[in-house]
Amino acid sequence: MNKKNILALIILVIIVGVYLIVNQDDASQEEFYYFQNTSDAYHTISISQGNDKITLVKNNNVWEMTEPVESPIKKRKIDDLITKLTSSKTSSLPVSVSEKSQDIYNLTDSLATLITIHDSQGNELTKALIGKTDSPQFSYARHPQSTEIYQLSENLSWTVNPDVNGWRENIVLELNSDNIIDFQVATQEREYKFTYADTLWKFTENDFTQDVTDDNKIMKSLLNRFKSLRSTNFLDNEFESYEELLDTPYLSIKINTSDVGTKILTVIPYDATSDLLQLGSQKSPLYLIPKNIREDFDFELDALVQ
Known about the structure:
alpha+beta, 9-stranded antiparallel β-sheet, 7 helices
């Protein structure tokens, strides 16, 4: 074989080698959905970090919390979690396979948050450790039995959080004021009633009556409380500790509506900033609400005519 043929062969080998390396790299960089791109089979999602753990279960297409307490959950949070799970892509080439890198990416068993997803038959669909990251664009994940670390296209570290109260639905009351027929208020000092008729609210307290418009400052404040009353915290399985106090409340409100029937709120003081509220006859949970809500219902009569 002469020198020209040898040179040509060398050049051909180099070209083929470069072609193989480039194409192998392209194949290794192929993207895939880390958690699958559909949530149709999702039935149970468990999220745990250290001693904190929550379990979310889908019943009749509605997600709710079953552990550590049974509770409705915020729809926007589960929607956000499902969207990020089904949108998370990664490269088939991990960013690291070194066990030492788990500390760098917060993916050790103790630092990471574990998410496990099962179907309705109890079969495990997927499991992953999610590391905390400051980036809003991405996060890192690995399987608990693997050292391969992948960068996800979604930041799950902020979403996958086993904070119980962060997941629980904190809306205590959400009424349409147009459907309120009347409401009665009783405190330890007074009782009064508002009744809606002919575009006006009729206020009655003892022998005093007054027509009040929706634009009245006091009326607006009270109706806004009924439109969106949210709790700041929950007390589970503690009814017996407060039962006697709830029998003689500082504030009791009975609201009659045309769409959701009657709602009864019973309120007692809790601490310097919060009151404790019982909704109807519900014993658990009891709700903590800001103290100033109780103060809104104790107004001067002169304020109704302003």
